[in-house]
Amino acid sequence: MTRQSRIPGFRDASPAERRAMAAKGAGVPAEALDAFASGGLTVEQADHMIENAAGTLGVPLGVATNFTVNGVDVLVPMATEEPSVVAAAGNAARIARERGGFHTSSSAPVMQAQVQVLDVADPDGARLRLLEARDELIRLADDQDPQLVSLGGGVRDLTVRIVDARPGRYVVVHLVVDVRDAMGANAVNTMAEALAGRVGEIAGGRVLLRILTNKADTRLARARAVFSADALGGERIVGDIVHAAALAEADPYRAATHNKGIMNGITAVVLATGNDTRAVEAGAHSHAVGADGVYTALSHFEVDSDGDLVGTLELPMPVGLIGGATKVHAAAGSAVRLLGVATAAELAEIVAAVGLAQNLAALRALATEGIQRGHMSLHARNVAVAAGATADEIPEVVGRLIADRAIRADRAEQVLAELRSPGG
Ligand SMILES: CC(C)(COP(=O)([O-])OP(=O)([O-])OC[C@H]1O[C@@H](n2cnc3c(N)ncnc32)[C@H](O)[C@@H]1OP(=O)([O-])[O-])[C@@H](O)C(=O)NCCC(=O)NCCSC(=O)C[C@@](C)(O)CC(=O)[O-]
Ligand SMILES: NC(=O)C1=CN([C@@H]2O[C@H](COP(=O)(O)OP(=O)(O)OC[C@H]3O[C@@H](n4cnc5c(N)ncnc54)[C@H](OP(=O)(O)O)[C@@H]3O)[C@@H](O)[C@H]2O)C=CC1
């Protein structure tokens, strides 16, 4: 069936209606999204997931509309506590779909583990001895995960670096592993630990660390979209968005905020699908450091020959559909069903598209009216609730805060007091 992510009336529906509309749009049974209603995790389940579990923590789960990725409509589950993130993603996706939506690609799902060797008398000699033993070491690593190998994954390469550090020179072996549909940390860590003894013998040193690197620059996801100048508001706004992005490329102070905007979208999808947000964030920020050692923007914006804006984003995306919490958390399972993805690569590419959308929405707001009007209008609901407004009172309090352009706690309390006073 054809999937439909452009759903009239979605924003004005109730959460239960939205679940039904989203399931219909994604072509999955309505009950596939039931876990979104309960949060998908009991305290008993939580007790099996982490140590000293004392409960669970609820996070809002929204669905971003309007996404088209590689010609297919996608409804995107986003877990976030921040107002305006889900609206902004849907807003940019609506603009992108005019020019065909997002186009994505990814490298093979390859992760790397590092094995650090200390006290090596001849690091250059050790490096070549390890490379001579490459086939033996790869076989030893692959033997640790026959299931992964049978699925078409397994070790793809073994490389050796010499790292000059303060106390001396370290020989560092990199095990390069195709982890298929897993995030891969457990898989590659098991392999790295299994290699340690033999690597130490061959190098003639003492093995210390044996662990995945989160600088996952061999596992990249990419997204590209064209945003029409008309839909963005004209040539001047396109130019100003390019200037806004250019500042992020040139200035680490702006780059950190620019990339935070990208991660607003990325982390929300990564969390919703039960993946490791810290791994993705570590990969993204390490990738944002250029060859010159300077932290810069992860995305790029330029103007095409038609005068439209072209946005591109490429970053490490170590996400999986197997392992970690992805399979045990019912709401994460629902999120994956909503997305309709069958491989980790498909998930990674959609996450990159959401990151680009999020970035464009923020840049457009910043290059035009500023962030506060759109963001703070949506944040006004939080301010009203924090001031003690009940469900019946929220719309009136929010309306007055926006009209007064004073989205502040003290003003919300004042408005509430007025509303509750006789004749208010
Ligand atoms: C907030 C909007 C979207 C309003 O934008 P708008 O133009 O006032 O909204 P609209 O009513 O014309 O609606 C346009 C589309 O936005 C979506 N939309 C609009 N409102 C809703 C809503 N209530 N619920 C659900 N969806 C909503 C929705 O997709 C809608 O189209 P539709 O599908 O309905 O045809 C816009 O101002 C925007 O995109 N702002 C950017 C907000 C943002 O980036 N927030 C992130 C938090 S700020 C931050 O942390 C990062 C930052 C900004 O510092 C990063 C950086 O500096 O680069
Ligand atoms: N630095 C970091 O980022 C670290 C992260 N972690 C955590 O590691 C966890 C992720 O580890 P990960 O290795 O993904 O999880 P798992 O070990 O749970 O899952 C991977 C395993 O699943 C099996 N498998 C079954 N089907 C597939 C398939 N289609 N594709 C790939 N593997 C398949 C494989 O073999 P088999 O059946 O033999 O297991 C594979 O080894 C996360 O919870 C993360 O938070 C842990 C340490 C460090």
Automatic annotation (TrEMBL):
<dbReference type="GO" id="GO:0140643">
    <property type="term" value="F:hydroxymethylglutaryl-CoA reductase (NADH) activity"/>
</dbReference>
<dbReference type="GO" id="GO:0015936">
    <property type="term" value="P:coenzyme A metabolic process"/>
</dbReference>
<dbReference type="InterPro" id="IPR023074">
    <property type="entry name" value="HMG_CoA_Rdtase_cat_sf"/>
</dbReference>
<protein>
    <recommendedName>
        <fullName>3-hydroxy-3-methylglutaryl coenzyme A reductase</fullName>
        <ecNumber>1.1.1.88</ecNumber>
    </recommendedName>
</protein>
<dbReference type="GO" id="GO:0004420">
    <property type="term" value="F:hydroxymethylglutaryl-CoA reductase (NADPH) activity"/>
</dbReference>
<comment type="pathway">
    <text>Metabolic intermediate metabolism; (R)-mevalonate degradation; (S)-3-hydroxy-3-methylglutaryl-CoA from (R)-mevalonate: step 1/1.</text>
</comment>
<dbReference type="Pfam" id="PF00368">
    <property type="entry name" value="HMG-CoA_red"/>
</dbReference>
<dbReference type="InterPro" id="IPR004553">
    <property type="entry name" value="HMG_CoA_Rdtase_bac-typ"/>
</dbReference>
<dbReference type="InterPro" id="IPR002202">
    <property type="entry name" value="HMG_CoA_Rdtase"/>
</dbReference>
<dbReference type="InterPro" id="IPR023076">
    <property type="entry name" value="HMG_CoA_Rdtase_CS"/>
</dbReference>
<dbReference type="InterPro" id="IPR009029">
    <property type="entry name" value="HMG_CoA_Rdtase_sub-bd_dom_sf"/>
</dbReference>
<dbReference type="InterPro" id="IPR009023">
    <property type="entry name" value="HMG_CoA_Rdtase_NAD(P)-bd_sf"/>
</dbReference>
<keyword id="KW-0560">Oxidoreductase</keyword>
<comment type="similarity">
    <text>Belongs to the HMG-CoA reductase family.</text>
</comment>
<keyword id="KW-0520">NAD</keyword>
